[in-house]
Design a protein that fits this description.
The complex is a heterodimer of chains A (252) and B (85). Chain A is of the alpha/beta class and 252 residues long. Chain A has 7 helices and 7 strands, in the order E-H-E-H-E-H-E-H-E-H-E-H-H-E. Chain A has helices at 24-35, 47-55, 72-81, 105-128, 155-175, 202-209, 220-231, and strands at residues 15-18, 39-44, 63-66, 85-90, 132-141, 181-187, 242-245. Chain A has a 7-stranded parallel sheet, with helices on both faces. Chain B is globular, with a radius of gyration of 13 Å. Chain B has 4 helices and no strands. Classes of the chains: A alpha/beta (252), B mainly alpha (85). Chains A and B meet through helix 6 of A and helix 2 and helix 3 of B.
């Protein structure tokens, strides 16, 4: 694919900020965005892993910011360090299954705090500090869980992701006068290390894969490609929408 | 942490099954009521009561309640060892 200025999918000349870039989907988004010509600010909690992502980026002029976006001072640090942004990708998230009878304040803080409160607080702060350019694009990585489906033990996770979906729509209206677009990418299950230490066993995962018409889980870069579309000028008239990337899972 | 309390906590996850006779050697995965949701409840119970995170794979590898108890014990020991370093 050409990455010159005549290509509507190009990110050349755009400064993009990506959260959760030290692993999984966020890492793939960072790498693919750099291939499309973007200048990046990436953030994650772990210096070593963030540096690993930085070393895999194409082009130059990218910066890593080690910060915890669930903390006020982490958000402050980010807002102070980033330049004027043409794109924000809220990818940092946590996957946790908790049966309803075991949901407590701590679990809510962990799951809703990371998946919903943190991206909201961060995006709001960047807007307030005037770090978001006119005609910028804001992308949230949500999920098919919450808006379309859920799973046993998945109520809290689904709530956190479903809340993002509502946020996307209202925020799109608030920011439309500035030409800022707000959209979501709603993936089905993506093959990342998020499951290595999870409550779901590998046997259950191989059973689950059979429920996908395309017979496999998604790859992180496949989420990244739809994020690139939403960040680029190719989607200039798209706002308040969610792109479902799920191998056909929600068709059945 | 002792095995009797652990068996009691584990048995209380079951609601349809008569759990008064649960022992350390009860093969929990052979019980009809055992399900993926009960597995999640077991993981949440261990997290809640013992501050230890076990995985779905841990439960799949265990045969008896005592096997789960041993996994939790080992993870607790590893955690303490890790804190000493």
């Amino acid at each position: 694919m050409r990455t010159d200025m005549t290509n509507p999918f190009s990110l050349t000349g755009k400064t993009i900020f990506i959260t959760g870039a030290s692993s999984g989907i966020g890492k793939a988004i960072a790498i693919e965005c750099s291939k499309m010509g973007a200048s990046l600010f990436i953030t994650g909690r772990n210096r070593e892993r963030l540096d690993d992502t930085l070393s895999r980026l194409e082009g130059s002029g990218h910066s890593g910011i080690v910060a915890d976006i669930t903390q006020e001072d982490g958000i402050k640090k980010i807002s102070e360090e980033v330049r004027l942004l043409d794109g924000i990708v809220n990818s940092a998230g946590i996957y946790k299954l908790v049966p309803v009878s075991f949901i407590n304040e701590e679990a809510v803080r962990e799951v809703v705090g990371t998946n919903f409160m943190a991206p909201l607080a961060l995006t709001s702060r960047l807007l307030k500090d005037k770090k978001v350019n006119k005609n910028a694009s804001i992308v949230f990585i949500s999920s098919i869980a919450g808006s379309l489906v859920s799973s046993p033990g998945g109520s809290l996770y689904s709530a956190s992701k479903g809340a993002l979906n509502g946020l996307i729509k209202g925020m799109a209206l608030d920011l439309a006068p500035k030409g800022i677009r707000v959209n979501g990418v709603a993936p089905g299950t993506i093959q990342t290390t998020i499951f290595d230490e999870s409550a779901v066993s590998h046997d259950q995962l191989s059973e689950d894969i059979k429920k996908y018409p395309l017979k496999r889980y998604g790859k992180p870069e496949e989420v990244a490609y739809s994020v690139i579309y939403l960040l680029s000028d190719a989607s200039a008239w798209v706002t308040g929408s969610s792109l479902v990337i799920d191998g056909g899972f929600t068709l059945l | 942490m002792n095995i009797d309390d652990f068996v009691k906590n584990f048995s209380e996850l079951f609601e349809e099954t008569d759990n008064t006779n649960f022992t350390p050697i009860t093969r929990f995965r052979d019980i009809e009521e055992w399900s993926s949701l009960l597995a999640l409840s077991a993981i949440a119970m261990v997290d809640d009561k013992y501050r230890i995170k076990i995985t779905g794979d841990n439960l799949r590898d265990a045969q008896t309640i005592e096997d789960v108890f041993r996994i939790v014990q080992k993870k607790q020991a590893d955690l303490i060892e890790g804190l000493r370093k």
